[in-house]
Every structure is written in structure tokens, then in C-alpha cells.
Fold this protein.
Amino acid sequence: SKYHQAVLDLYFAAGSEAKRVLHDEGVFIVKVGDEVSSNTQYLTHIQITNYYERELGFYTKDLFVVERHNTPSVSGMHNQVHARKNHSFFMVYSMNGEPQNIIESS
């Protein structure tokens, strides 16, 4: 969806800026949540990791899962199609290390 692509564009721009300003030993921490938009599941944490490793050369150093304890607000939904997103991630990327999560198709 256009909305989701706009979200990705912000993460991509932030990653490019982090690469520009970080030292060789620099660390970049990103908070991200997966989402459902227009009844389509988007695994945003995977999408930005793919971009950061493949396009920017970051190494994915760590991942923290943060659980949400309050009830998420839902508007305009009559039938639930996907699981509720009651967690987010803190993704830790480093300039020091080789990308490890790039999968090449054969």
C-alpha cells in the first residue's frame, strides 16, 4: 500500500543518514513494529533488515522483542483477519561486521 511504502521510505532514509554519520564502530538502533495495512501483512522488521544489509551494508547485531501490555486501538474493522500486533522490535545494526542475512536465490 502507499501508506506502508511511505513508512518504509522513512526507515530507508533514516538508515542512509545513519550510514552517513556513523563512525566505523557505530551502532544504529531502530524501533519498528510489523503492521497490517489494507488487509495485507507487512513484516516491516524483515523488510528494513533486508534493505539495511543489502543496500547499506549494515550488520544486524541484535534484536529485542518488546511486548505491548495495553490494548491496541482498532478502527473500522469488523472481522479480524490477521493476528493482533502486540509487540515491537528494537533492531540493533552495526557498521562493524559483514551482513549475514542476505539470501541469494539460486
Q: What stands out?
A: The mean pLDDT is 87. Strands lie at 27-32, 35-37, 40-42, 59-67, 87-94. The longest strand covers residues 59-67. The two ends are 29 Å apart (CA to CA).
